[in-house]
């Protein structure tokens, strides 16, 4: 089976840099994958896309070595299984509150006897290659998001859930969980909580990742020791660059 290179690196304690896809378009997905991101995550929770878009975006990513992940809209086993059958090499599951919920996500990612995933890898076996049914349980990344007040209270039990590969931090929802609001990344309580999640994952041998929106944040969290850090989102990259260059062009036009 095709190796999940990002997952291998996390297991070896190495660091990776990824991107986020919120635009439902095969061309933008292929363009982003051509840039050399270690992983790209297609966002079914908040992105402007649907499962129908996923059917075109995952094949587009497949033209390059980038590992395709999908953030599902909820901890729903049928949705998790469908994303994996479409060819995702891992899922990010939002709003995981406790070990029981983490175990549900893990089970949906694993074929029996390790889990309850139903067999039907329609595209996954073609993309994953020979041996998919035998090796998928070891190559599919199951990633839980800890971003609620309950999840923070149960951090250790989530991080130590058997079969869970990683925890991913969504800074905005984490801010809400702390009573600080979505733009609280520079608040001391937010910073210490991120460090607490990082340390818990280290103690339990679980990989840990975080979402960012800038180069400086990405560099900071890589230096902190995060295994995977998302540099930014397709729509944000487009808006930022277009905005800067448009403003410069208008200055020249008015000069």
Alpha-carbon distance between the two ends: 59 Å
Question: Going across the major beta sheet, what is the strand order?
Answer: 1-2-3-4-5-6-7-8
**Which regions are unreliable across 5 or more consecutive residues at pLDDT < 50?**
none
User: Largest sheet, described in full?
Assistant: 8 strands, parallel, barrel
Question: What are the secondary-structure elements, in order, as H or E?
Answer: HEHEHEHEHHHEHHEHHEHEH
Number of strands: 8
Strand fraction: 15-25%
CA-based shape: globular
Oligomer: single chain
Residues in helix, %: 40-55%
Count the DSSP helices: 13
Query: Quick check: average pLDDT?
Result: 97
Q: Structural class given helices, strands, pairing?
A: alpha/beta
Radius of gyration: 18 Å
Walkthrough of the structure:
This protein is of the alpha/beta class and 255 residues long. The chain has helices at 5-11, 26-34, 51-61, 77-85, 99-109, 124-128, 132-139, 149-153, 155-159, 171-177, 188-204, 215-224, 234-254; strands at 16-21, 39-43, 67-71, 90-93, 141-145, 166-169, 207-211, 228-233. Strands 1-2-3-4-5-6-7-8 form an eight-stranded parallel barrel, surrounded by eight helices. Helix 2 runs parallel beside helix 3 (51-61). The radius of gyration is 18 Å and the shape is globular. The model has no long low-confidence stretch (mean pLDDT 97).
